[in-house]
Amino acid sequence: MSEHRIEVIINGEPVTARVPARRLLSDFLRDDLGLTGTKRGCETGICGACSVMVDGRLVKSCLSLAVQADGQPIDTIEGLADGETLHPIQECFINGGGLQCGYCTPGFVMATCALLAANPRPTTDEIRQALNGNLCRCTGYTQIVESIHHAAEKLHGN
Amino acid sequence: MRDFDFLEPASAAEASRMLLDEPEESRLIAGGTALMLGMRQRMLSPRRLISLGRLEALRGIDFDAKEGLRIGALTRHAELAADPAVQTHYPMLASMAARVANPQVRNQGTLGGNLCYADPATDPPGCLMALDAQVVIQGPDGERRLTIEAFLVDYYTTALEPGELITEIRLPPPAEGDRGHYARHLRTAAEHRPLVNLAAWVRQRGHGCEAARLVVGASTVVPTRVPQAEAYLMAHPPSEATVDATAELIASGITPLSDARGSAAYRREMVRVIARRSLAHLFALPLE
Q: What ipTM did this prediction achieve?
């Protein structure tokens, strides 16, 4: 089993680590770095609770090896808030009731970041398409979609 | 997931040599979205993963009006969907790529990886077959090209020989009158894998079709062209009756899979339905 020295930039901070080849990116973030905001849900690439950004691309960290991320920036849910001040997307999910148990929420918030970066004012249909890789078993999605509309307004105006 | 070594060759030739070192124990990894699933479920337990991640030569999309389209094997589905040349000259391909799996997988999974995995329940192979694509294969004895028909052999089985890998996918240049439409059927909107898909491509001349490639995917072990339906479509002027008859020929011309996701009868009927709608769309015909 090979071991690898990887250099990544996690939420803006350079991190160097040694990982075995088989270390999943989700396990690296949670178990090695203690960044437990990224959730392990289905562990089969369906639920999207483990979604993070690698080099600006939304991916499922349970389907990625840590070694594959070598040399790249990784953004997780922990990087969104500015100290005690939540990111507008996080605020809108709270104010709009875009969550119930909250387990899937980091994945949805990261998916929303990716969507609004590419498409500042998405339609409801575009929002639903963008959430196709994320499952929520509580909300029924309606308030998640509304929260994202509010976040788009807040971030990018009318 | 069992332990393995992770190797990072610097060229396709080196990757080929590494594959040949221990062919039974080695797998290539590109994006890894499908491979990780197979390994985590221990359906696959390679002792060596040979990563193509450092091979910049396998990236990129280039279009030339005479040469056609070159798609590097490491092109991600999202990159294919967003590429201006693909959107302009091969809109069917861009539209297909925008629907593969889900956003996260499109951002990581690659076209070459998708083809080499040869999972029947997927989108790209049938669409590429309808567009007359070829794969460029690098191996220990140099380079060769195969059509998609020759490349896909069986469930999860390709024509790749030991030490071979796909470096790029080539599409012929488009001509005046080329039109294509890609359609898929999912059992529920939440599913990510198509139960049935149909890639329809025609070259129109005047009121008729000079050429046609009609390919059913996801409901057959490998994507299947239906020559009798293509011949019928070329022999008859586009009309609702032609569309109906061609759709019937497509549905009756395949041997559908039958499994927990859908019976053969259900799949055949869905093939007929999406074929009829796709062809009507292609010829801008209203349907009842």
A: 0.97
CATH of domain B5-51: 3.30.43.10
| Interface check B192 vs A, CB under 8 A | yes
Range B179-282 has CATH code 3.30.390.50: yes
Query: Which one of A79, A99, A133 terminates a domain?
Result: A79
Q: Which two tokens stand for residue B43?
A: 């359906």
Interfacial B residues in 88-127 facing A (CB < 8 Å) = 101-105, 107-108
In angstroms and rounded to an integer, the radius of gyration of the C-alpha atoms of chain B is 19
- Tell whether A10 and A73 lie within a shared domain: yes
CA within 13 Å, CB half, B143:
9
Q: What is the CATH T-level fold of the domain B56-171, as seen in this structure?
A: 3.30.465
Best of B1, B3, B6, B40 to disrupt the A interface by mutation (most A CBs within 10 Å)? B6
Q: Could you tell me if A129 and A92 lie in one domain?
A: yes
Whole-number pLDDT of residue A98 = 97
Q: How many domains does chain A have?
A: 2
Question: Are B5 and A1 an interchain contact pair (Cβ–Cβ within 8 Å)?
Answer: yes
| Helical pair A88-95 and A105-118, crossing angle rounded to 10 deg | 120
The sign of the CA dihedral B24, B26, B31, B36 is positive
B279: tokens are 């062809």
Domain with CATH 3.30.390.50 in chain B: 179-282
Say which CATH number the domain at A46 has.
Answer: 3.10.20.30
Ranges of CATH 3.30.43.10 domains, chain B: 5-51
Q: Which of residues 5-64 of B touch A (CB under 8 A)?
A: 5-7, 29, 32-33, 36-37, 40-41, 49, 51, 53
Exposed, middle or buried, A12 (CB in 10 Å: 0-12/13-18/19+)? Answer: exposed
pLDDT digits (tens, 9 = 90+) for B203-259: 999 888 999 999 999 999 999 999 999 999 999 999 999 999 999 999 999 999 999
Which residues constitute the domain of residue A152? 88-156
B78 chain-A contacts, CB cut-off 8 A? 57
Tell me if B240 sits within 8 A of B280, measured CB to CB.
yes
Express each pLDDT in B151-193 by its tens digit: 999 999 999 999 999 999 999 999 999 999 999 999 988 889 9
B228 touches chain A (CB under 8 A): no
Residues A139, B281: Cα–Cα separation, whole Å: 37
